[in-house]
Design a protein that fits this description.
Layout lengths: L29 H5 L3 H8 L12 H14 L2 H10 L10 H4 L4 H5 L1 E4 L11 E3 L26 H4 L3 H7 L13 H4 L7 H5 L2 E3 L11 E3 L8 H4 L4 H5 L1 E8 L2 E8 L13 E9 L5 E4 L5 H4 L4 E2 L1 E4 L13 E5 L7 E7 L6 E9 L3 H7 L10 E9 L1
Antiparallel strand pairs: 1-2, 3-4, 5-6, 6-12, 7-8, 7-9, 7-13, 10-11, 13-14
Helix pairs in contact: 3-4
Length: about 375
């Protein structure tokens, strides 16, 4: 597991003093927020928001570098809109190295999700020192920054998220990241799943609430970086049965959007292995290439070039196949097994990017390039 940097509380030279005019604090430094919001900053430190900068996310860095090599340096500026939104023009400045920090959401005054660009280009940032949130706070409630009414684009648990996690197409118009367009009518807000309520106050100074929304921003990377696949497992269920020569695998999407979603290279694959009475493998649904040997076993997107050959999403001419589960969908995949098979082992595995993409990006040795098992089942005749 790769070690992650967790922000530690800021040591103050003198106690905080309340005043009508907020004391200036470095709003782009989560460490400055930790003195009052220590639990939240620690949670954020485990999130991919804290690792949004290329120095902290090797998969993003590899893709960005390849895109800049093939498509020009301007591509990097587009990446910065979401990955270093508080320092788009200088991503290696301190406020850029933070990634998606506190100020990205809490210093925002409005979000225009209809804007063609994403990330910072959709967000209006304030310069008044007022840190906005989902709750109404009286002016002067904080001794170190401005406070005021709840911000609707934060309180709804979704609008600020869709500034980056909406939808985008590649330069040739092929849809790539499309999470916002996939949301089902009964999905709830983004925060309802990705920021669940946890015990403890969010601040030690101005609230009496005994719970707050987790700022770990739960997502698939936790399965690799925190060795915690529970959130990812909860997004999909797998049940299996065997009748005659047919093994049936039922996959049910419990997420409020497509599964998998986010970066278009993410993929989930059913792997089935049949064994005879001696325990020797005598059948499998695919051996080396699931897309060719058992495409019904693959949940993901397939992008192709003008000649119809698979290619990385940013360089594709079109999206040729989208076999992901839609929000709330239940799908049954069946396999016909030979009579010699007496037991079947089933696994649903998840990859942040498929093996060909990992090879193209040169990241095959990274832990994040390895599959994680979401569900498994054993069946016998």
């Amino acid at each position: 597991m790769r070690l992650r940097f967790l922000w530690t509380p800021l040591i103050l030279a003198a106690p905080l003093v309340a005043s009508a005019a907020p004391t200036a604090i470095p709003v782009d430094s989560p460490a400055a927020c930790s003195a009052c919001h220590g639990a939240i900053v620690t949670e954020w430190g485990e999130s991919m928001h804290a690792s949004a900068h290329a120095d902290s996310d090797p998969l993003f860095a590899a893709m960005r570098d390849l895109r800049m090599k093939k498509q020009g340096a301007a591509v990097g500026d587009k990446c910065n809109q979401c990955h270093t939104p508080r320092s788009v023009d200088n991503p290696d400045a301190p406020e850029g190295k933070v990634g998606v920090g506190c100020a990205t959401c809490h210093l925002s005054t409005a979000v225009d999700t209809s804007a063609p660009s994403r990330g910072a280009a959709r967000i209006t940032f304030a310069d008044d020192g007022v840190m906005r949130g989902p709750h109404d706070l009286a002016a002067g409630a904080s001794p170190v920054h401005g406070t005021g009414p709840a911000a609707a684009h934060i309180a709804d648990g979704q609008t600020i998220c869709l500034a980056c996690h909406g939808e985008v197409a590649n330069p040739k118009g092929a849809p790539t990241c499309t999470t916002g367009a996939e949301l089902s009518d009964d999905a709830g807000s983004c925060a309802s799943c990705h920021m669940p309520m946890v015990d403890g106050p969010g601040t030690v100074t101005v609230t009496s609430r005994d719970q707050h929304r987790s700022h770990a921003f739960l997502g698939p990377h936790r399965a690799w970086l925190q060795d915690d696949p529970s959130f990812l497992k909860g997004a999909v269920a797998m049940n299996a049965s065997w009748a005659g020569q047919t093994v049936s695998v039922v996959l049910e999407n419990n997420a409020g959007h497509a599964f998998p979603t986010g970066f278009p290279g993410r993929v989930a694959i059913v792997k089935a292995v049949g064994k005879d009475a001696s325990g020797a493998m005598v059948w499998t649904n695919w051996a080396t290439n699931p897309m060719k040997e058992s495409p019904e076993s693959v949940l993901g997107k397939l992008y192709v070039d003008a000649a119809g050959k698979p290619i990385l999403p940013p360089f594709a001419d079109k999206l040729a196949r989208d076999s992901r589960l839609t929000g709330g969908e239940s799908r049954t995949v069946t396999y016909t097994v030979p009579d010699t098979v007496k037991a079947v082992e089933l696994r649903l595995v998840y990859l942040l990017l498929p093996a060909p993409a990992a090879q193209a990006l040169g990241v095959t040795d990274l832990p994040e390039a390895k599959p994680t098992v979401l569900h498994s089942a054993s069946l016998t005749r």
